[in-house]
Amino acid sequence: MIKPADYTYAVARIRMNEAKLFSDEELYSLIAAEDCEEIIGRLKDRGWGDELVSETAVTLTETEQKRLWKFMAEIVPDGHVFDFFTVKNDYRNLKSVLKAFYSGKDTSAGYTTPASLSLAELEKAVSERNFAPLHGMAPVAEEAYDVLTRTGDGQAADLIIDRAALRLSYEATQKTGDPFIAGFGDLWAALTDIKTAFRAARNGKDVEFITENTVATPALDVRALAEAAVDGPESLISYLTRGSFAACGEALKISAEALEKACDDMIIEYCKRAKLETFGTSPLFAYVIAKETELRSVRIILSAKNAGLSEEEIKSKVRRSYV
């Protein structure tokens, strides 16, 4: 059995890499760049991407994402620590392959790693309608495939997959044996439930729909959340602002996009607790969240800069830094 002390080397490597993460001030400095070309140049100076390749905004962040997971594979003695990410990606990839198969489009662009199933395995299962090789995913894949091909309702198929992904990703955090990761799972699931409830409130969904597509955690009473949401967005906002997720309610007064940022910022603030840990898995897990959040911020900056948004507009979208 792997013990917390077995991660000593990995945590030491993580501490070195944490020092390379962008601070809030450094992200704002990127925003102040003249254009995307200058931003890409600064990122490459920072060690991002492949110095021998002429990177685009897309390939640069993709290269950095792959580097993250290559690094984690090298230093982590037990990959099950990251089952949360693998499960999420497996179901995201299934959704992408199903949609591509139905529409006749290329599937490779939507494939995300780390994942336990290869793109070829998913494509073969869908094209042959033989989902048994997908093991635990098979019933969900079968149901989503049937709905999509029989009705053409992509949203209904997505809902089937998203529901399973939410519950199994949450379960993955609870099985690690790490209280920090379990607590992360509680927070992440609660924030996901809030976003689901808001979409349901805008679309006039009932309590049963909301409770079926959320997951109960100690962090949030999903029944009360659903009952607030069925009366519309204003009722949901009022409910949230009275409780421990007041930041979500305040963000929703602005926009759904503001809610996404508020949720990401709450997760980063939670993950900062792992900075105090010397042993175990929590610093490794937190670093992955921190790096993925940094990647998200950089993508936002590049996209917003390309769209001609002002510096203040871009700053309002960028996620809080881990450092």
Structure report:
This protein is 66% helix and 0% strand. The protein has 323 residues and is an all-alpha fold. It has a domain at 1-78 and 281-323: Topoisomerase I, Chain A, domain 4, CATH 1.10.132.50. α9 (179-202) runs parallel beside α11 and α9 packs antiparallel against α14. The two termini are 32 Å apart.
The percent of residues in helical segments reads 55-70%
Strand content: under 5%
Question: Shape, please?
Answer: globular
N-end to C-end Cα span: 32 Å
The CATH architecture classification of the domain at 1-78 and 281-323 is Orthogonal Bundle
- CATH-defined topology of the domain at 1-78 and 281-323: Topoisomerase I, Chain A, domain 4
Average pLDDT taken over every residue = 94
Compute the number of helices. 16
Number of strands: 0
Order of helices and strands: HHHHHHHHHHHHHHHH
Largest sheet: none
